[in-house]
Amino acid sequence: MDKTKKQQLIQEAQDLWQTNQAYEASKLIYEHIPHQDRATWAGNILKLAYPHFSPTTDIEAVIQFAENANNWSQERQKEAMRIVDTVNRFSKRPPIPFPQLIYNLAAMVGKISYNAQHFPAPYDHNAGWKIGEILKQIAQGIDFQNFEENAWNQFCDEQFLQLDQPIICHPACPICYYNSESLLME
Known about the structure:
This protein is mainly alpha-helical. It has one domain (about 5-185). Helices cover about 60% and strands about 0% of the residues. It has helices spanning about 5-20, 20-30, 40-50, 55-65, 75-90, 100-115, 125-140, 145-155, 175-185. The chain is globular and about 40 Å long.
C-alpha cells in the first residue's frame, strides 16, 4: 500500500474514531494488516494499555504469546488455547467496569494471536474488529496525559498497514471465506 492510500485509510479511520465509531475504525484498520503482523499489532496495543492496570500473570502470558506468536508450533496449540481461554473467562459483556476492560482487550489479543497460527478451531474473526472499541473505552477511562493520542498512534501504526485488499484470516473462517468468494466473483 502506498503512502497516499495509507494516509487516506488512517484519515477515514480517525473520522470514525472521533465520531465514536471505534468498532468500524478498527474493522477498517485490522483488515489492512497482513496476517503475520496482526498478533504483533494487537500485542503492541495491549502493552501500551497494560501498565495502567493492576499486573496479572494471565495478561502477561497473552503479551508473551502475542510477541512470539509466529514462533508457536502446532504442538503448542493446546497451551495457546489455554492462555486465551484463561483471559477470555475474565472478560465481560457490556456494561464493563473499567478494570475489566484490560481482560477484554487481552482476550481479543489472544484470539488474534491464536488465529494467526492457523491452529484448528479458530476464535471469532471479529476479535480484531473489537480492538479499537475496547482501546477507545480504555483511553476514555485513563487520566494520563496524551494516552488517547498514544493509543491512536499505536492503533493505526503505518508499518502494519500494508494490504490493499482484505485477506483470509483463517482457512476455516466463514466471514473470510464469504468475502474471498465475493472478491472472486467480481
